[in-house]
Amino acid sequence: MNTITVAGQAIPSMPWQAKPTQAQGPVWRYSENPVVPRNPAPGISRVFNSAVVPWEDGFIGVFRAEYVNGRPFLHLGYSADALQWKIDESPIPMVDGEGKDYPPLYAYDPRLVKIEDTYYIIWCTDFHGAALGLASTQDFKTFRRLENPFLPFNRNGVLFPRKHRGRFLLLSRPSDSGHTPFGDIFLSESPDLVYWGRHRHVMSKGGQGWWQTLKIGGGPAPIETSEGWLLIYHGVTQTCNGYVYSMGGAILDLDEPSRVLYRSQNFLLTPEMAYETQGFVDNVIFPCATLVDAPSGRIAIYYGAADTYVGLAFAQADELISYIKATSEVVGDDPDLGRP
Ligand code: BMA
Fold it and tell me: Fewer CB within 10 Å, N- or C-terminus of the chain?
């Protein structure tokens, strides 16, 4: 009997394919991947690591668009079916609190989440080094930048989809100025999206799973379920040919989300297909968004592939959660509150 329930809205029109019989593990790829190919709009050479949400009669997304000069910015994309995307040719116009233009110097790895009646974009921006940028919109026309949550260096921010005890929750991975030779996931909270504190350690890299020995980072916004917050994340290992980015899964306590209840020691998806193993950066799977149909528990996972494409994968919430529990290995003080 299915006793695992998922919070949130029904999205019956979201993409879905049944699990192929030969699929291994609880996550399987969309057969027509990638969903965003190379050169998807004039001046844009690659789109990857991007986030989508339901919007009006269809879907809208914030896409990491790498220009023909190699610099990344955020562009909106529109779709009726969340599979065929039309990417805007101009970047998202950001303004400050007074309505004046306030464009980021660069922008990458966006996450997009709706909290109450507002959509928030969090991304990696420049602030004397890589830092988290934050902006809000209610209509996908006006995008107001808010204060950057943290000092540099921090490139990986993920907001929870609802307030917890009246506060916004943010997962992030503080780092150094380089390509992060270390990295655990931390949790911070804020009453107003300006002041952040009560920092807690959530998850360590490492454990038996060698695929996540170098660093880990949050992926899509956590999904609220009866078993806890389902967190899809990325883990990185270092090989003699460079880094390999895979997808992992964990379940955080609903009341105390800095506690890890379960965490699969196995990756959920690792680079295998040509669009994941060959691209601008080979061997990267970087999940940034999900669409979740709460009544059926269907999950569509959008991930960047090889820093070149947007890929799509599917999972069924109860199967995924059961797998994470069955293969769980919590690492170090993962199960603790993570207080300083
Ligand atoms: C990370 C980020 C991601 C990128 C990944 C692999 O540090 O910069 O944007 O997908 O590296 O290159």
Answer: N
CA–CA distance, 166 with 191 (Å, rounded to integer): 7
- Which residues partner with 170 through β-bridges? 159, 188
110, with CB counted inside 10 A (0-12, 13-18, 19+), is: buried
Q: Which residue has the tokens 């769980």?
A: 328
Q: Tens digits of per-residue pLDDT, 238-284?
A: 999 999 999 999 999 999 999 999 999 999 999 999 999 999 999 99
Confidence of residue 179 (pLDDT cuts 50, 70, 90): low
Arch. (CATH architecture) of 36-329: 5 Propeller (2.115)
- Tokens matching residue 282: 């080979």
The pTM (predicted TM-score) of the whole model is 0.97
| Residue 36, CB-side half-sphere exposure with 13 Å CA sphere | 35
Amino acid present at 184 = D
Alpha-carbon separation of residue 325 from 91, 98, 157, 230, 321 (angstroms) = 41, 48, 25, 11, 6
Closest ligand 1 atom, CA of 64? 9
Tell me how far the alpha carbon of residue 66 lies from the centroid of ligand 1, in angstroms.
Answer: 12
316 alpha carbon – ligand 1 mean position (Å): 27
